């Protein structure tokens, strides 16, 4: 019998809308059997999520989604079953979160120069461990300065707009090493979202694998059948395990429900077979 698992979720410790315990409760209602919390560049919600999973009888994996750079492009790597106490991983996260906070301050300055209440808008973002542009966009919506998060990005926050601030992220290989050093497995996140040719995507996956990457996401909401086929082909070609998740952020996005069936395309090894006896999973 197929079970529901979710190895890519976000809480309000980064840019999700729900507290870790509320996220887990929603996962339990969706009959999720295995859950990973993968907030952006922080492990801050894992302790609370683990405790809630124990109460609901859900297996839990400590995780995070690390932001990195490859050939000048922003790429994301999900780290699963990491040791939360690993000092190198914690130091890495601390450094990146400092970069994130500095970026929010710079965005606030640029928005103020454009006539918006930049510092007030940044306050919400700076109140969480992993501040993102999404927090500023939400604050814009709450203040009546934008009618949606997407419109806030389109008018103010994306590249070419008054509040955009470029960010130099750690290199892909550095991030993969951090995950491996913490005893985890590195998964290339949402390959269908990178706006590159098939050839460049193959080069990305090859370098990710050569750096020590062990998995690739092959089942996510928003993936067209062609996207899934492409990810499965990459998994088989580069001997990567397949991972599934929702990339859940908030209940108001019903097309990203928590929990995915653990069925994978033919010939793709499940990532769960490689996680081992970590964080209560055997």
Describe it.
The protein is of the alpha/beta class and 282 residues long. The chain has helices at 20-29, 46-56, 87-113, 118-126, 133-142, 149-157, 172-181, 198-210, 225-237, and strands at 4-6, 32-37, 59-70, 73-80, 185-188, 215-219, 241-244, 260-261. An eight-stranded mixed beta sheet has the order 7-6-5-4-3-2-1-8. The longest helix is centred in the middle third of the chain and has 27 residues, at 87-113. The model is unreliable at 278-282 (pLDDT under 50).
User: Could you give the order of strands across the largest sheet?
Assistant: 7-6-5-4-3-2-1-8
Strand content: 15-25%
Largest sheet: 8 strands, mixed
- Strand element count: 8
Identify the quaternary structure here: single chain
**Which class best fits the helix and strand makeup?**
alpha/beta
Residue runs with pLDDT of under 50 for 5 or more positions? 278-282
Order of helices and strands: EHEHEEHHHHHEHEHEE
Straight-line N-to-C gap: 18 Å
Draw up the topology in text.
Layout: E1 4-6, H1 20-29, E2 32-37, H2 46-56, E3 59-70, E4 73-80, H3 87-113, H4 118-126, H5 133-142, H6 149-157, H7 172-181, E5 185-188, H8 198-210, E6 215-219, H9 225-237, E7 241-244, E8 260-261
Parallel strand pairs: 1-2, 2-3, 5-6, 6-7
Antiparallel strand pairs: 1-8, 3-4, 4-5
Helix pairs in contact: 1-2, 3-4, 4-5, 5-6
